[in-house]
Amino acid sequence: MKTVVMVAALLAVFALQPVSAAEKRAASGKSCYTPAAIEAEQAIRFMTDVMIVSSECQDTIYAQFRLRNKDAIIEYQKAMIAHFHSKDAFDSWNTSLANEASRQQAGKPSAQICQQAAELMKQASRLDAKALHEYAAAKAAASGASYTRCGK
Questions:
Q1: Which string of DSSP letters, residue by residue, matches 80-129?
Q2: Which of 26, 38, 104, 141 lies most in the core, judged by the most C-beta atoms within 10 Å?
Q3: How far apart are CA 104 and CA 117, in angstroms?
Q4: Would you state the pLDDT for residue 152?
């Protein structure tokens, strides 16, 4: 009986803790997206995939991609910070995204990962800011139905 009372008391304490708007949206999974946020998310997801594979395959494509697209990446990050209403919430989401991408590769031999990602890496080696925007916009348009849009 003491355990039940203790658990109930702890739950009550946690329920009274303040929760930021970004944390509420992230927890509910019902955050709405603007078209700019959808495009930014797609660009950052691409960049994250390139980062994970580049690291695993021990090449410099990710570093080159970041240098070539520095300004576009910063703008996409700003769009996601605005979407999440804070840098901390964006950082948390971005870390979660990278962790999930890493988990998807876990346990696979490096040679297999590199072979399966060859086309991704070729694409990353060719994308400049204009092409990155076109890629992210196309991905956003293709996956737009899976997002809750703001204002609708």
A1: HHHHHTSHHHHHHHHHHHHHHHHHHHTTS-HHHHHHHTHHHHHHHHH--H
A2: 38
A3: 13
A4: 54
Range 16-29 average pLDDT: 39
Burial 102-112 (b: 16+ CB within 10 A, else e): eeebeeeeeee
> 């691409």: which residue's tokens?
46
For 149, the enclosing helix (H) or strand (E) is strand 148-149
Residue 151: the pLDDT is 75
Which pair of tokens denotes residue 20? 């930021």
Query: How far apart, in whole angstroms, are the C-alpha atoms of residue 81 and residue 89?
Result: 7
Question: Which class for 70: exposed (0-12), middle (13-18), buried (19 or more C-beta within 10 A)?
Answer: exposed
